[in-house]
Structures are given as structure tokens and as C-alpha cells.
């Protein structure tokens, strides 16, 4: 799910993202801020595990699988009585971000 802010018609990026299976693009009619946008997105999500990334975040290959595995190991969904399609989160995991090592491929060191 992608949450967008701003007025006007749906943006080209939302139109493109909406073509990807299981991706929905929500658009706020006005500026709501980060937290309200995340709450709105979470309230319309159907998955039992949610993750939030900001537009400046960059992830490596296979970054999500270890977090999902940890949720399963801790039995978070089972202890909370949650199965698939539950809208009620009960725990949060905070990954440790990898350091950015420069130069990054295709970007100058000043980027």
C-alpha cells in the first residue's frame, strides 16, 4: 500500500503502482502528515503484518523475510489471536538499518 498526499487527480506514480498485484495507492486530499497517513493506511490494510517505509528508505534484497520470520518465532500473531486478514496489530519490530557505504553504484559521493 502506498499513501500519497496532495490535491488534484491521481498521480502517475499511483497509476503505475496500482498495476502491481496486491498494491493499493491511497491519496489524501490534503496534507495529513506522516502519522495520520500511516494510521489511514493501516486501517484499510488487510494483512496481519504491516511494515512502513518512508520515501527516503532504501532496502536490500531479502530484507523483509528475517522480520517476518522473527514475528513467527515470537508467536506474536498466535498469542494475540490474530490470523491472516486481521486489522489489529499487537507488536512492533524495529530493524537495525545497514549503514550507507559510499560511493553507491550510480550515485556520486555527494548524493
From TrEMBL:
Q: Which residues form the Glycosyltransferase 2-like domain?
A: 18-73
Question: What's a GO biological-process term for it?
Answer: protein O-linked glycosylation
Q: Which UniProt keywords apply?
A: Disulfide bond, Transferase
Annotated Gene Ontology cellular component terms: Golgi apparatus
Which Pfam families does the UniProt record give?
A: Glycos_transf_2
Top-level division of the source organism's lineage: Eukaryota
List, alphabetically, the SUPFAM superfamilies matched. Nucleotide-diphospho-sugar transferases
Q: Where is the composition biased (Basic and acidic residues)?
A: 101-111
Q: Keyword Zinc on this protein? A: no
**GO molecular function (one):** polypeptide N-acetylgalactosaminyltransferase activity
Keyword check for Transferase, yes or no: yes
Under the heading InterPro entries, the entry gives:
Glyco_trans_2-like (IPR001173), Nucleotide-diphossugar_trans (IPR029044)
Stretches the record annotates as Disordered: 80-111
- Indicate the segments annotated as coiled coil, or none if absent: none
- Could you tell me what this protein is called? Polypeptide N-acetylgalactosaminyltransferase 16
Amino acid at each position: 500500500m502506498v499513501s500519497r498526499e496532495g490535491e488534484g487527480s491521481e498521480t502517475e506514480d499511483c497509476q503505475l503502482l496500482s498495476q502491481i498485484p496486491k498494491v493499493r495507492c491511497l491519496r489524501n486530499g490534503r496534507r495529513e502528515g506522516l502519522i495520520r497517513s500511516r494510521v489511514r493506511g493501516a486501517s484499510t490494510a488487510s494483512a496481519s503484518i504491516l511494515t512502513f517505509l518512508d520515501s527516503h528508505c532504501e532496502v536490500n534484497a531479502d530484507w523483509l523475510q528475517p522480520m517476518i520470520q522473527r514475528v513467527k518465532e515470537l508467536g506474536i500473531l498466535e498469542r494475540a489471536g490474530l490470523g491472516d486478514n486481521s486489522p489489529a496489530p499487537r507488536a512492533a519490530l524495529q530493524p537495525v538499518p545497514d549503514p550507507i557505504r559510499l560511493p553507491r553504484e550510480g550515485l556520486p559521493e555527494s548524493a
